[in-house]
Specification:
Two copies of one chain form a homodimer. By secondary structure, chain A is mainly alpha-helical. The first copy, chain A, has two domains: 18-83, Orthogonal Bundle (Arc Repressor Mutant, subunit A); 88-253, GntR ligand-binding domain-like (Four Helix Bundle (Hemerythrin (Met), subunit A), Up-down Bundle), CATH 1.20.120.530. Chain A is 67% helix and 3% strand. Chain A has ten helices and two strands. Chain A has helices spanning 18-31, 44-51, 55-67, 87-100, 106-127, 130-144, 150-168, 171-194, 198-217, 221-241, and strands at 71-74, 80-83. Chain A has a two-stranded antiparallel sheet. Chain A is elongated and about 65 Å long. Mean pLDDT of chain A is 87; it is low at 241-254. Chains A and B meet through helix 1, helix 3, helix 4, helix 5 and helix 8 of A and helix 1, helix 3, helix 4, helix 5 and helix 8 of B. Chain A binds a DNA duplex (30 and 30 nucleotides) through residues 17-19, 43-45, 53-57, 59, 62, 73-81. Chains A, B: It comes from Quadrisphaera granulorum. Chains A, B: Keywords: DNA-binding, Transcription, Transcription regulation.
Chain lengths: 254, 254
DNA sequence: TCGTTTCATTGGTCTGACCGCTAGATGGAC
DNA sequence: GTCCATCTAGCGGTCAGACCAATGAAACGA
């Protein structure tokens, strides 16, 4: 019997798999600063030999980090696997998958959007980062073009919210915002496609977007935040409660 | 010469790699609702044969989805690869990697934390989800235990903010909050380890956490949000400006 | 000198093999 | 009949080796 009354506390000792070891090794180099954006990794064959694993193990690790937007591979003599800085696609895929799996309730996703975009709007009203404002203006023009298709409208809608997030000047919030909106893109487009009163709906959306832009441009942060929240929630309601949709949380994809 | 003045607009035709096709196929099944949490995928060999790719391609795809918290594999006759709902680890690794790569400036990470946790605090004050409140209380007790180590203090600090996020009742915000705090864990712990005035610093942190908890428990949402923001920003300043740290954004890891 | 060909290097893919793990079938001891 | 140890089939985990595809640079010829 051990002297410690609480017991020796054996830890489970989960033997790490080969590819996890490789991921850990690469992550370690990144954390230590020995690998930064633009750097080239050793060839797969060499890295496998150095780490004492097979090439398959290295490749699986590279795939994982690639899917996280950390690495990118290219064949060719000048090619190789190098460190890259493109986090958004990974975040989008992540959210899209988990939304599809209902691991995240649509309601909670909307709540998160409201929190992030309210903050974005409020900050954008004071910072006015020109890139984002331009993106928003162009998106408005595309939405207001005569005879715009629902696909194009949805793309412009996504771009508008991306621009708003960019205009806020905070990269992390912007990445989260854009990823959430992009992950929802398919759902929103499906709802738009189903809409039987598209003219009225799109007029409404155009007016809301325009009002948000004006509030931001005029520097009215609190108003912009309020408009964004109402816009997101009413759009979500339309998405959620569309009478043409069969029941169920993720019905548009079924 | 093409009749269209803008040109035929050749798209690059990026040939999708085998594992991307497999990921797409699995994602498609998930989006269609044919695969949900708990479901078992076909054996790797069979799936490879059905999709017309090698087992390596299937395995690379499974690895990627596994790293996103969507699949999990287990050997054994009853084992297999099944759909699983554990998004947080994946989100944490993602953020940790990109913070380490300086793809996300620490300042922006802190901004995002402020936005998310202000909202969490305000909501927690009205919702009072009991799970989260209990987690916060226990974390406070651990922080206030005599002779607590810096590691344990940091773990309790993380737990406190997790509890706050849980108490807000919104799963997505909570996942984002917890992941950000966990991704910063190493940095914060390093800063704590370096601290030459740990007694004073930890007293300060204990007081701030206690004040936040009291404000939430008393239902003072706006006060709680304000306290959380000040707490996060002052802690970030200590982390960032610690005189013992060498210059540079990610110095604690260098 | 300039264009063409060849070549070496790298990732991309596939094949086939063997290992370790584990629930369930098997079979023997009582 | 019951219970326990053993065996077995099927699965993921890993590996080695081979060949394909892409690419830039060096070698070569007009």
């Amino acid at each position: 019997m051990p002297s410690d009354p609480s017991g020796p506390d054996w830890k489970p000792l989960r033997r790490a798999s080969a590819h996890e070891l490789v991921i850990g090794a690469i992550e370690e180099q990144i954390a230590a600063g020995a690998l930064t954006v633009g750097d080239l990794l050793p060839p797969e064959r060499e890295l496998a030999a150095r780490l004492g694993v097979s090439r398959a193990g290295v490749r699986e690790a590279v795939r994982v980090l690639e899917s996280h937007g950390v690495l990118r591979s290219r064949p060719g003599v000048d090619g190789g696997t190098f460190v890259t800085p493109v986090p958004r696609e990974a975040l989008t895929r992540f959210l899209r998958l988990h939304i599809a799996l209902s691991n995240f309730a649509l309601e909670d996703v909307v709540d998160a959007r409201v929190v992030l975009e309210r903050a974005s709007a409020a900050r954008a009203a004071t910072s006015h980062a020109e890139d984002g404002m331009t993106v928003m203006r162009e998106a408005l023009e595309r939405m207001e073009a005569p005879g715009v298709s629902r696909e194009d409208f949805n793309a412009a809608d996504t771009a508008f919210h991306s621009g708003l997030a960019e205009a806020s000047g905070s990269a992390v919030s912007a990445a989260l915002t854009v990823s959430i909106r992009t992950a929802l893109r398919g759902l929103i487009l499906a709802a738009m496609q189903r809409s039987t009163s598209w003219e009225a709906v799109s007029d409404q959306l155009r007016a809301e977007h325009r009002a948000i832009y004006d509030a931001v441009a005029a520097g009215h942060g609190e108003l912009a935040a309020e408009l964004v929240e109402r816009h997101i929630r009413s759009a979500a309601d339309d998405l959620h409660l569309d009478p043409a949709a069969p029941g169920g949380r993720l019905s548009p994809w079924q």
